[in-house]
Amino acid sequence: MKGLPLILIFSMFFFACVPEDHVLEIEIVNHTDEPVQSIRLSTAKDRLSFEADNLPPGQEIGHTLQVKESVADGEYIFRFIRSNGQQESVSGSYLEEEEGAVKRTLIFNVQEKSVNVEHRVLEVE
Prior knowledge:
This protein is mainly beta.
């Protein structure tokens, strides 16, 4: 119980040091009847990435990436393998020309024959 205040103080310090304007949240939703495998999202010229082995049908994965301003190139590549062995790849940008900061949620909706990508402005509290 004595360590709890120390943990809280450390946590507050850690999160205070992360610039909230360089956050990229991702959600990957499998809308198919089959699992998808070897999931990888990479950004910043492959310096930052998220990987998952398997995403069952009807399930979703969420993850947050802290993108340092010095490596934020605004580009992403999303790759995965369908259950039939077909490799899929989608690329795009998570920055708009007017924006200087990263406050974005990317939602990858894996469909039977396509991948739809939604962009949302991240609600930071």
